[in-house]
Design brief:
heterotrimer; A mainly alpha; B mainly alpha; C mainly alpha; A: Helix Hairpins; 3 helices; C: mainly alpha; three-stranded antiparallel sheet; two-stranded antiparallel sheet; 30 helices
């Protein structure tokens, strides 16, 4: 049987890669993809804890489902915003969308 | 450490997940990055199966691999004209440091607190039924009717919002 | 049963939804708003009927009421400490469930007809067109409020929803929520015609001021009530009615001394203190003495509002609350010596009943008579609770709601007819003054032939109010209170009996002045009222005003008692309590006394006002008999003036004289002026110093700040990833501290 910490380490790695992606990628679509990675890492964590700590109690799975929902909503709205910004400013580079400054 | 089919499967899925994630954040071709994302998400679905949550695995494949990835791919195509070769921005060394530190901290805590834990009990047979019930009941220990409804409204709002925002 | 929860939650939800729909979508369409409101209230009525049927067919409803609920605010231990919100339908709740939706539905139907017109005078300030100038020199303009009718339907829908929340609530906090929403609604509705003024009557209270007055006055009662709720929660850890009131241990636990170290309050128990605090809320809400002054002025609202406030909803809420909390109020009551809250309730209630009845005798506004009559009848119920006549109070609450709604809507119909007649007379060229008061009974007379439906139903309602024996609901409920008082508390009985006599008298006076004889004005001569939407509710309510009393006829009553199945109401409602109160043995004395009192009051009223009806320009015959007392009563014992003198003016005086003139003008302004002059002087003395040192310093400070901010502004790069990198680095530092503290140290 696989010990719990393997799953947690995979999830932690995935999360850290997601953080790196959010901070380092130039393209906003790539940033959204990285956010999806982070959400997925959280989901792996939730399910792993549910399986190893309290399988008789379904709250872990239920939470994972709500994370799915939020991820779907976030992706839809986020990508729509990107398309909208692209129309208005002809760019999808996060660095160039910097109107909100001094 | 015994090598069993399950551990082999785990390693394959973990490799998919982590390798895919690495691809997403490093690949210079954005469309390839999206394909790597599918790989990573697929790996996560495999992990769900190993964790005996087949329903979540199915949902993962349907929603992430099926819907969100396609959405991302379409967005990439729509906005592609100006993207030549994608590269990291100037703060990538700082970002890498932050990511590494985060991974190190998390890994340390995990190894300190959760190393070598094994499942305490089996998954009940009726877990899927109960999961379904939990989402639509408002009494008892597993009562998610109200969050469920709120999530529904959220999705509706996101849908309408996405249409309104993306429309010309 | 799962369905109970769903049905019960939908009952208040439906009018509340109608409120939002009307405000958000249909507010520009009167017809659409009427339809939305009517659909909502009819839906509520049907659901309430289903729930009532379920409640009536449940055996032992008192022991096992219909309940449903969910955790609303988890606190501490999830099971014991959390605040739950839920519904409770026990026998008492079932009674509310019967008459609240019934009267509310009738009032909604009526409102759709009543609000079909509405124009009045407003004051024009500054330059602007005006149609008339009154004796006080104000420029007046005719204003048409027709456009506001949709909003009116929204408000009464909100009001009905709040009352249903209150009726179905299973805990004191949810009850208080409904209670306060109604407070807001009463403010909105009383002040509905907020720009109305009364020509030639600059002193008369306007709807806007009446709304503020109602809101502020009830607030005086609500604050102690909130304190009482908080105290109850901190003492028992729950606000659920069943857990507190149907639980001998908790009631016993509440029956301990509240202030053992304060000699002056030595005998007060916690239950007693909380009971008094809660009762203060009821004093404000149910307009008991000394907070009764807001209710007559609430008559400035449109008439369906008066019916809403007086019958189905707001004032009933206060009495309902004290009936509901009766086990708490009477904790430690052995059946003989009244507890402290009961004593207070009995005295306040009985006094109010008589006090308000005397005022009602000398009012000439058709709605004010009913307003004081309401205060008086509420006093009855409060006194009934005070002497332990739990069931009688609930009974009278129900019958009174029905016949008082009937009377108010009848009076609205009268006013409507007279206003209509006034417009009509004006068209025919008769002169009419700009201050014509369509609510003044001395401007009426002879309406019997003009508006027969209203007249007949009003007569039935009036007889029910005065307790006309055997054929009206009011007789049975009032008789039960009087019988209880007769057996337990003779003082209260005689006070209430005197009030009953006055009630019968002023009711007959009102009917005589309004309907009997010949019209005294052109407006009354041409009054008409044909809208079925206003007549139908009157007929329906008149039916219930006659028959609703037969559910609670005493078992021992000759012939009728056996015939009607033996006091169903008493056993049904009585089972709400832990120990069903024993029904009194039937006794002839109070019955005969109350019949005699009611009939003699009616007879005297008939002799004075109906047999020899007043002619135009006649004075009230009472004026000759009572002399100066009449003036005292007409002016409501000068309570408004007294409160104005001791509360309103002092606070105005304090804010004007002390706060504004002394504190602001003298002390603060004076200090500032002094400082200013001092520095002025200093400045002139040290011009050069100023120029080189002060200016230089000021400039350099400003420039320094400017430069510093200039260089710092680049932190705001507008680049989201840079912000996030910094934020995550910060989070990492915090995590590092935690890891160090929890794992490495």
């Amino acid at each position: 049987m696989i010990p719990l910490h393997w799953y947690l380490l995979v999830a932690a790695g995935m999360f850290a890669l997601g953080v790196y992606g959010v901070l380092a990628r130039r393209n906003m679509v790539a940033i959204i993809m990285s956010i999806e990675l982070m959400l997925n890492a959280v989901n792996i964590n939730l399910v792993a804890f549910w399986r190893y700590m309290a399988p008789e109690n379904l709250n872990g799975q239920a939470f994972a489902i709500f994370v799915f929902t939020v991820a779907a909503a976030e992706a839809a709205v986020g990508l729509a915003l990107i398309i909208s910004i692209y129309r208005a400013r002809e760019t999808v580079v996060a660095k160039e969308i910097d109107m909100l400054k001094w | 450490m015994v090598i069993t089919p399950v551990t082999i499967a785990f390693f394959i899925m973990a490799a998919f997940t982590l390798g895919g994630s690495l691809g997403v954040v490093t690949n210079r071709n954005l469309f390839h990055a999206a394909l790597y994302l599918i790989l990573a998400l697929f790996g996560a679905a495999g992990l769900f199966v190993l964790l005996e949550a087949p329903f979540l695995a199915a949902v993962q494949v349907l929603i992430y691999v099926g819907a969100i990835s396609v959405l991302i791919a379409i967005t990439i195509m729509v906005t592609r004209r100006i993207m030549g070769v994608e590269s990291a921005n100037r703060q990538w060394p700082l970002s890498a440091l932050v990511g590494l530190l985060l991974a190190a901290t998390l890994g340390f805590v995990i190894m300190d607190r959760f190393a070598g834990k094994f499942p305490v009990a089996g998954v009940p047979d009726d877990s899927l039924t109960r999961l379904g019930m939990a989402l639509v009941s408002y009494e008892g220990m597993e009562a998610y009717l109200v969050p469920f409804e709120v999530a529904s409204v959220l999705l509706l709002a996101a849908m309408i919002g996405a249409i309104v925002v993306a429309r010309k | 049963m799962e369905n109970i929860g769903l049905i019960a939650f939908l009952i208040p939800a439906s009018p509340l939804l109608a409120f939002f729909i009307i405000l958000l979508f249909t507010r520009h369409s009167k017809l659409a708003s009427d339809i939305v409101a009517m659909v909502a209230i009819l839906f509520t009525w049907v659901l309430a009927g289903i729930l009532l049927y379920l409640a009536l067919t449940t055996p032992h409803l008192g022991e096992e009421p219909l309940t449903a609920g969910l955790v609303w605010l988890p606190l501490g231990d999830a099971v014991t400490d959390s605040l739950r919100m839920g519904v409770l339908v026990d026998p008492l709740g079932a009674v509310m469930l019967f008459f609240v939706p019934l009267t509310a539905t009738m009032i909604f139907i009526y409102s759709t007809g009543y609000m079909a017109s509405g124009s009045y005078w407003t004051e024009v300030t500054g330059e602007g067109d005006h149609d008339a100038v009154d004796t006080a020199g104000r420029k007046l303009k005719k204003f048409d409020a027709t456009a506001w009718k949709a909003r009116f339907m929204a408000f009464i829908a909100l009001f009905a929803g709040a009352m249903l929340i209150l009726s179905l609530a299973d805990n004191l906090l949810l009850l208080f929520v409904g209670w306060e929403i109604m407070g807001l609604c009463s403010y909105l509705l009383i002040g509905f015609w907020h720009n109305r003024v009364y020509a030639n009557q600059p002193k008369r209270i306007t709807p806007m001021l009446a709304g503020i007055k109602a809101f502020m006055t009830t607030r005086v009662g609500d604050m102690p009530m909130l304190v009482g709720i908080a105290w109850l929660y901190s003492f028992t850890g729950t606000l659920n009615f069943r857990e507190i009131l149907y639980n001998p241990e908790v009631l016993e636990g509440l029956n301990v001394l509240a202030f053992p170290n304060v000699p002056a309050l030595a005998g007060v128990t916690v239950a007693g203190a909380i009971g008094i605090l809660l009762f203060m809320g009821a004093i404000g809400k149910s307009a008991q003495f000394p907070l009764h002054t807001w209710l007559p002025d609430a008559m400035e609202g449109p008439t369906p509002v008066s019916a809403m406030i007086h019958a189905a909803t707001m004032v009933s809420a206060g009495v309902y609350m004290i009936i509901r909390m009766f086990p708490l109020m009477s904790a430690g009551w052995d059946g003989h010596a009244l507890t402290l809250p009961m004593q207070v309730m009995a005295s306040v209630g009985a006094f109010t009943a008589l006090f308000a009845a005397t005022i009602a005798v000398a009012q000439c506004d058709v709605k004010k008579v009913l307003a004081y009559s309401t205060i008086s009848q509420l006093g009855y119920m409060v006194a009934a609770v005070g002497i332990g006549a739990y069931v009688a109070a609930a009974f009278h609450l129900m019958t009174h709601a029905i016949f008082k709604a009937l009377l108010f809507m009848g009076s609205g119909s009268i006013i409507h007819a007279v206003e209509h007649g006034e417009e009509h007379a004006h068209h025919h060229g008769h002169h009419f003054p700009i201050d014509f008061d369509a609510q003044d009974m001395f401007n009426m007379g002879g309406l019997w032939k003009r508006i027969p439906v209203t007249a007949w139903t009003f007569l039935i309602g009036g007889l029910a109010l005065s307790g006309f024996p055997f054929v009206t609901a009011g007789f049975w409920s009032k008789d039960e209170i009087l019988a209880d008082a007769f057996a337990h508390n003779p003082t209260v009985f005689w006070v209430l009996a005197a009030a009953a006599f006055l009630t019968a008298f002023y009711t007959m006076r009102q009917i005589g002045l309004t309907f009997a004889g010949e019209p005294r004005t052109h407006a009354a001569e041409e009054a008409t009222q044909t809208d079925w939407r206003m007549n139908l509710p009157l007929v329906v309510l008149a039916f219930f005003a006659v028959f609703a009393g037969y559910v609670g006829v005493h078992e021992g009553f000759p012939v009728l008692g056996k015939l009607l199945g033996g006091n169903f109401f008493h056993h049904f409602v009585g089972s709400t309590l832990l120990k069903e109160p024993e029904a009194l043995a039937f006794s002839w004395a109070p019955v005969l006394l109350s019949i005699g009192i009611a009939l003699s009051g009616l007879l005297i009223g008939w002799l004075v006002y109906v047999r020899r009806p007043l002619q135009a320009e006649d004075e009230d015959p009472l004026k000759k008999v009572l002399g100066p007392i009449y003036t005292l009563l007409e002016n409501k014992y000068y309570f408004d003036e007294l409160y104005d003198l001791i509360f309103v003016r002092p606070s105005k005086w304090v804010s004007e004289q002390i706060v504004y003139l002394l504190l602001d003008k003298q002390i603060i302004d004076g200090f500032l002026h002094f400082v200013a002059r001092f520095f002025e002087w200093l400045a002139f003395r040290n011009k050069d110093f100023d120029t080189y040192v002060v200016n230089g310093l000021g400039d350099s400070v400003a420039e320094g700040i400017g430069k510093t901010s200039d260089s710092f502004k680049y932190v705001q790069s507008g680049r989201i990833q840079q912000y996030m990198a910094i934020a995550i680095a910060g989070v990492l530092m915090l995590v590092g501290v935690f890891v160090w503290a929890l794992f490495l140290r």
